[in-house]
Design brief:
By secondary structure, the chain is an alpha/beta fold. The strands form five sheets. The protein has a seven-stranded antiparallel beta sheet with strand order 7-15-11-12-14-9-8, with no helix packed on it.
C-alpha cells in the first residue's frame, strides 16, 4: 500500500510521478526471540497510516481472539500471518511488507529470531541495506543478537539501527539503555559496519517510532522513521565494473538473438566492449532492449536484454563483463559458509552450488576454522552444524566468473543444495580464488591409460562392492581376484579394513569421516584404473552420494557398482567379527544398519544375492560379466 497523500485527490498524475522517483530502501528487523520485531513493523505501518480500514478491523478482532496484549491492538499480527506463528507467538518465515512516505519507499523484511530459523533471517538479510537489530531492554545482548549481527556483517549490510526496545517495561531507565549501547559498541568493533545508530523505543507504545517520546527526554537522536527516511545508502553496485549474469538466451526468430538478465554491477551502453566469461570471447553491445523500448544506458538493478554485434557463444550461466575490467574466473575458492541444515555439513561430499544463473558441483573441504559468534574467535572444526559459520575451501567441477562478495553481492554470493533432497543446506560468500587453481596444471604424459591397459591385455575397470557389514563383499572380491590372477590378469583390491590401517587410519566412523573415507579411496581407485588395473573396491560405502561421486570420477564404462544384497537379519546372524553384537550392546557407535543408515543402490550394474549364492558362484557371475562386457580382452 502506498502512502496516503493529499496530492492523490488534487493531482494524481503528479503523485504517481513523484512516487516513481522516490528512492527505495530495503531493511530488515532481526534479533533474538520475542524482542518485538513484528510489533515494530506493525507499529510502523499503523503510525504511517499504511493500513486499510478493513485490515484494521480484522487486526482489532484478531488481537482480541489470538493477541498477546489483552484488549489492545497486537501489532505483531500484521506480519505474523502463519497459524503456527500466531499460536506460538514467534516469527517463523520471512514476511515482506511494502510501504512509503512522502520522502521514500520501503521494503521491510520481518525475520525470525528463533535459532532454528536463522536460515530464514539470512535470506531476508541478503538483499537488505539497513538492519534494525532489536534488543529487549530487560535481557540485553544475547547469543542470537550476536549471531544476527555477525550474519548482517557477513552479508554486507553497513548500517545498523540498535533498537533498544521495551523500555516502557523498565520505566524508560536511561542507565539500562546506556549499558546496552556501550556493550554493543564494544562487541561490534570488529564488525565492518559504517554506522551503528542506537534508538531507545517501545514498539508497543509507539515511543520514538514516528514521533519523539516524552518518556525519553534525555534522548536527542532521530526517531526510527526519521532515520529510515534520511539514511544515506551508497549504491556500490552502480560504481563497480559492468557485470550481467545471463539468465536466458532470447531467440524469438532467426533475426534476433539477445542475452537477458539483471545487471549485477556497473553501467552499460551501446558500443561498449564486453567479454563473455568463462569463454573470454569479446564483442560490442549493439542494443539494450526492454519492453519499453531500447535504452541508451542501463545500470545495476535493471533487467534488460543485450544484443551484440558479433555471433559469439554465450549461454545461460555465462557472465557479460566490461572487457577492460572483467571478472576473474576460477574453479577453487575460499568462502565463508553459514550452514542452514539440521544435518551437519559433510566435508568431501559434493553439493550443488548455485550462484546467479550458474549451477556447478562443489566439493566442500573440512573447515579451516569455525567462527565463535560471541567472541569472533576462530575455532578448530571438522564440520559445520546447523547455524554454525566457518571458512572452507570449495572445489568446483567447472570454472565460473565471480567477484569477492565484499565487492559485489550478486557475483560473490551462493547457496549450497543437497543433491538428493534438493534442500538448500548452506549459504556462502566467496572470499577469494585459491592461487593453486591457476598455477597447478596437469603434466602431459607420453604413456597413457590406454597404453598401460593394452600392455596388460585388459580393459581397466573399477568394480565397486557395496553392502552391509557381513554381506560378503570382501570374500567375493577375494574369490574373484584369485580367478583373475590365475588367468594372468593384473588386479588390486582396495579393502575397507585394510585401507583403514594406513591411508585412512586417521578417520573414524562419523558421517563426515565416512564421506572422507570414500573420497580418498575413490581418488586412489581412479589412479589404479589409470594404471590399467582391474580394481576391486570393497567398502560398505553407505551413502549413494559418495558412490555417485566415485562414478563421476571415472570415464563411461569404467565404474561398475556391485550391490552385495544381503538382508540385515542375515548379515547380523553371520556376524563373523562380532561387530553387530557390540553395536547392539552400544559398544560401537555409528554402526551401519544399527544406528547409522545404509542407502542401497537404486540401479546397480550387478546385484548379488548371497542368501542363495556362494562366494565362488558370485565370483563366477562377475567373471562372466567382465568377459561379456569386454574387460578381459
Amino acid at each position: 500500500m502506498a502512502h496516503v497523500s493529499d496530492q492523490i485527490a488534487d493531482d494524481i498524475l503528479g503523485y504517481l510521478k513523484s512516487h516513481e522517483t522516490k528512492s527505495l530502501l530495503r531493511f530488515i528487523t532481526c534479533g533474538s526471540v520475542d524482542d518485538g520485531k513484528s510489533t515494530l513493523i506493525g507499529r510502523l505501518l499503523y503510525e504511517s497510516k499504511m493500513i486499510f480500514e478493513d485490515q484494521l478491523a480484522a487486526l482489532e478482532a484478531d488481537s482480541k481472539r489470538v493477541g498477546t496484549q489483552g484488549q489492545e491492538i497486537d501489532f505483531a499480527l500484521l506480519v505474523d500471518g502463519l497459524a503456527a506463528e500466531r499460536e506460538q507467538g514467534i516469527t517463523i518465515d520471512v514476511a515482506y511488507r511494502f510501504f512509503s512516505t512522502d520522502r521514500r519507499k520501503f521494503i521491510v523484511a520481518d525475520t525470525p529470531g528463533h535459532e532454528q530459523y536463522t536460515r530464514n533471517m539470512a535470506t531476508g538479510a541478503s538483499t537488505a541495506e539497513v538492519a534494525i537489530l532489536m534488543i529487549d531492554a530487560r535481557k540485553g545482548i544475547l547469543t542470537q543478537t550476536r549471531r544476527h549481527s555477525f550474519i548482517v556483517s557477513l552479508l554486507g549490510i553497513k548500517h545498523v539501527v540498535l533498537a533498544v526496545n521495551k523500555l516502557d517495561i523498565v520505566d524508560y531507565d536511561r542507565a539500562v539503555y546506556d549499558e546496552i549501547v556501550e556493550a554493543y559498541a564494544e562487541f561490534a568493533k570488529p564488525l565492518d559496519f559504517t554506522s551503528v545508530t542506537p534508538i531507545p523505543m517501545s514498539a508497543l507504545r509507539g515511543d520514538n517510532i514516528t514521533d519523539k517520546s516524552g518518556h525519553t527526554p534525555w534522548y536527542n537522536g532521530p526517531t526510527l522513521m526519521a532515520y529510515l527516511e534520511t539514511v544515506e545508502v551508497a549504491d556500490s553496485a552502480e560504481t563497480t565494473p559492468f557485470r550481467m549474469p545471463v539468465q536466458w538466451v532470447n531467440r524469438p526468430d532467426l533475426d534476433f538473438r539477445g542475452f537477458a538478465g539483471m545487471i549485477a554491477g556497473g553501467t552499460v551502453r551501446p558500443g561498449d566492449r564486453v567479454k563473455a566469461l568463462p569463454s573470454s570471447r569479446e564483442s560490442t553491445v549493439k542494443s539494450i532492449v526492454t519492453m519499453g523500448g531500447d535504452l541508451n544506458e542501463a545500470v545495476a538493478g535493471q533487467s534488460v536484454t543485450i544484443t551484440l554485434n558479433d555471433e559469439i557463444d554465450v549461454s545461460r550461466g555465462d557472465v557479460l563483463c566490461a572487457a577492460d575490467d572483467p571478472a576473474p574466473a576460477a574453479d577453487q575458492f575460499q568462502a565463508t559458509i553459514l550452514w542452514m541444515n539440521e544435518n551437519e555439513m559433510l566435508p568431501g561430499r559434493t553439493y550443488l552450488m548455485k550462484t546467479g544463473a550458474t549451477t556447478a558441483q562443489a566439493t566442500v573441504a573440512a573447515p579451516k576454522h569455525a567462527i565463535d559468534v560471541n567472541t569472533m574467535e576462530s575455532l578448530a572444526a571438522h564440520t559445520l552444524a546447523l547455524n554454525e559459520i566457518g571458512v572452507c575451501n570449495l572445489n568446483l567441477d567447472r570454472t565460473i566468473a565471480f567477484d569477492a562478495y565484499k565487492d559485489n553481492r550478486d557475483m560473490g554470493g551462493f547457496i549450497l543444495i543437497d543433491r538428493l533432497s534438493n534442500e538448500t543446506v548452506g549459504v556462502g560468500m566467496i572470499d577469494f580464488a585459491l592461487r593453486r587453481a591457476s598455477n597447478i596444471h596437469r603434466q602431459a604424459l607420453v604413456i597413457d591409460k590406454t597404453a598401460r591397459a593394452e600392455s596388460k591385455g585388459q580393459k581397466p575397470v573399477m568394480l565397486w562392492f557395496t553392502g552391509l557389514s557381513g554381506s560378503g563383499k570382501s570374500t567375493i572380491a577375494n574369490a574373484l581376484e584369485q580367478k583373475l590372477h590365475a588367468m594372468g590378469r593384473h588386479t588390486y583390491i582396495l579393502d575397507g579394513d585394510n585401507v583403514r590401517h594406513g591411508l585412512n587410519k586417521d578417520l573414524g566412523f562419523t558421517d563426515a569421516d565416512r564421506v572422507e573415507n570414500i573420497r580418498r579411496v575413490s581418488e586412489v581407485g581412479k589412479l589404479m584404473v589409470d594404471a590399467g588395473l582391474l580394481t576391486l573396491v570393497s567398502f560398505i560405502s553407505p551413502f549413494r552420494s559418495e558412490r555417485r561421486m566415485a562414478r563421476q570420477m571415472m570415464e563411461e564404462g569404467e565404474f561398475v557398482e556391485v550391490h552385495v544384497d544381503t538382508p540385515l537379519a542375515v548379515a547380523e546372524e553371520r556376524d563373523v567379527k562380532g561387530l553387530y553384537k557390540k553395536a547392539r550392546r552400544g559398544e560401537i557407535k555409528n554402526f551401519t544398519g544399527i544406528d547409522s543408515p545404509y542407502e542401497p543402490p537404486v540401479d546397480p550394474e550387478i546385484r548379488l544375492d548371497t542368501t542363495n549364492q556362494t562366494p565362488d558362484e558370485a565370483a563366477d557371475t562377475l567373471l562372466a560379466f567382465l568377459r561379456e562386457k569386454g574387460y578381459l580382452a
